[in-house]
Write a structure and sequence with these properties.
The structure is a single chain. The protein is α/β, with parallel strands linked by helices and 324 residues long. The chain has twelve helices and eight strands. The protein has helices spanning 64-75, 111-114, 117-132, 147-158, 165-173, 178-185, 187-201, 219-225, 237-247, 262-281, 290-297, 307-323, and strands at residues 2-3, 79-86, 96-103, 137-140, 161-164, 207-210, 229-234, 286-289. A five-stranded parallel β-sheet has the order 5-6-4-7-8. A three-stranded antiparallel β-sheet has the order 1-3-2, with no helix packed on it. It is globular. The protein starts with a strand and ends with a helix. The structure holds adenosine-5'-diphosphate and shikimate-3-phosphate. The site of adenosine-5'-diphosphate has 15 residues, from α4, α9 and α12. It comes from Castilleja foliolosa.
């Protein structure tokens, strides 16, 4: 099903490659300037333009937030139909107007239909990779925030190696699991080994590193992570508790409990930990908020966000950080 879309613009000013795919749930406008009076304007909810376009605000305010949406929307915008109308026939100076008709979202969000995730992540990685100069990317965030899952996707896209700190700690200590290390040697021994591992990693290049949720609490760890770019995966606690309840708490000693009502216990424990650590996460160079991604692409639940969509946002935010 398709929806009529308010989208027009002067094609002469389109940048290459032209945007050819439009999201019908958002009105999209392409062009060099926003006309101050236009019947489509009251319906205009979102803007997809390319960065090289010159925007004259006229009567229309273009909030910064909207501008931030641009890169994402511009990447892949499904369009059912595109037609160009020209005023040349009327003997006027030629102005071409593009009217685009978008495709409807699949029920439940339909990211794969709307965004060609694999293409976007490939393009974005290729664009960013030269600017990284081999710097490692450190993913920080609470337990269950997706550091490992998203980290693997990111590493693959960038042609980097993926490293999991917990695994390296297990290898260093010679114990099978983090839970066993906590049990046999205690948390402070675990933290010392974590720092040792981060120190070693800080001398390496082209790695995406999934750190443990508590790595942010020691300032010395930040000194190591500053050698690369740190990214905080900011996930609502409810989503973390749901994910962790689904897989169980056996591998996460700080959350482990033998309770049947594991969601509420996990939620309580996560809230207490976040209370202690929330501020430390803000030390990261870049914050990737799942709530912001969901709002950006019109998804109601952060649980619908695929690891690739999150990895794309990581790349976008790193790009902004590098350009600063
Ligand atoms: N975007 C996602 N969508 C659905 N499930 C996810 C997503 N990211 C992570 N998960 C799941 O949540 C759990 C915790 O993820 P993980 O990557 O191990 O987190 P972390 O390394 O931060 O502790 C895993 O079971 C994983 O499959
Ligand atoms: O938050 C924490 O203090 C911890 C998080 C765990 O890693 P994940 O964040 O990968 O679960 C692991 O390092 C250890 O259980 C301690």
């Amino acid at each position: 099903m398709a929806a009529q879309l308010d989208a027009l613009g002067a094609s002469a000013y389109f940048t290459s490659p032209n945007p050819t795919r439009i999201n019908p749930t958002k009105s999209v406008f392409f062009g060099t300037k926003l006309p101050s009076t236009n019947s489509t304007m009251p319906k205009l909810k979102s803007l997809a333009i390319s960065s090289s376009l010159h925007i004259k605000n006229g009567d229309i305010e273009v909030p910064r937030k909207l501008m931030d949406d641009v890169e994402f929307l511009n990447s892949t915008l499904p369009t059912l139909k595109s037609e160009v109308f020209s005023t040349a026939g009327d003997g006027q100076t030629s102005v071409e107007i593009n009217v685009l008709q978008g495709e409807m979202l699949e029920p439940g969000g339909g990211f794969p239909e709307l965004f060609d995730e694999s293409k976007i992540i490939k393009n974005k990685s290729e664009e960013i990779e030269p600017y990284l100069n081999g710097r490692c990317i450190y993913l920080v965030g609470m337990m269950g925030s997706g550091k490992t899952t998203v980290g693997k996707v990111l590493a693959e896209a960038l042609g980097y190696s993926f490293c999991d700190c917990d695994t390296l700690i297990e290898e260093t200590v010679g114990e099978n699991t983090v839970a066993e290390i906590f049990k046999s040697y205690g948390e402070s021994f675990f933290r010392d080994t974590e720092t040792e591992v981060l120190h070693k990693l800080s001398m390496m290049h082209q790695l995406v590193v999934s750190t443990g949720g508590g790595a942010v609490i020691r300032p010395v760890n930040w000194r190591h992570m500053r050698k690369g770019i740190s990214v905080w995966l900011d996930v609502p606690l409810e989503a973390l508790a749901r994910r962790i309840t689904a897989v169980g708490t056996d591998s996460r000693p700080l959350l482990h409990h033998e309770s049947r009502n594991s969601y509420s216990k996990t939620m309580k424990r996560l809230s207490a930990l976040f209370e202690e650590r929330g501020e430390a996460y803000t030390n990261a160079d870049v914050r990737v908020s799942l709530e912001n991604i969901a709002a950006k692409i019109g998804s109601e639940d952060v649980c619908n966000l695929t690891p690739t969509v999150i990895a794309i946002e990581v790349l976008l935010q790193i790009c902004k950080f590098i350009k600063k």
